User: Fold Peptidyl-prolyl cis-trans isomerase from Ectothiorhodospira mobilis.
Amino acid sequence: MRMRSMFRRLLVTLALLSTTTGNQVMAESENPRVQLETTMGTIVLELYPDKAPETVENFLGYVREGFYDGTIFHRVIPGFMVQGGGFTPDMQQKPTHDPIRNEANNGLSNEPGTVAMARTPNPHSATAQFFINVEHNRFLDFTAENPQGWGYAVFGRVVEGMDVVERIVAVPTGNHGMHQDVPREPIVLDRVSEQ
Assistant:
């Protein structure tokens, strides 16, 4: 009888542990996802609100407003990254909300497939533009809270469609007015939505 009771307790404990572990795995996969439907295919991003809460909320705000719909990947550099989210196909820059605080000091690195906020030389100037790293761009990582060390805030990763990113980074580019590395044929983000 005592053995049966111990066996039952062990089974209950194991069941509870497996449920807890399953919920943890489930919670980890419940990060917000955003789908970028482009003229070259679909890219799905998983966002990390636990690592970059203000950045993720800012990005999702633009997504919810439909801000990114009809914008382009306007800067494409092989061996570096693809950047978008701020210009229309005729290279008109869209007005944005106020800049956000730089959250690059979050332990995430600008590895291939990660998504980070673009900004000016001012560390706290990111608004809507983002880029997808196609190489491990360690020189963009946070090193110190000074103008040279702030880095670029990684806030997500491509979880589907990295092949689309690879096709984008291979397109011919050129100059368009003051802008360099602009795809000769616009690569449009037709629709950007939460999954």
In short: Residues 1-30 form one domain. The longest strand covers residues 41-47. Strands lie at 33-38, 41-47, 71-77, 81-84, 114-117, 130-133, 154-160, 173-176, 179-183, 188-194. Residues 80 and 167 are 14 Å apart (CA to CA).
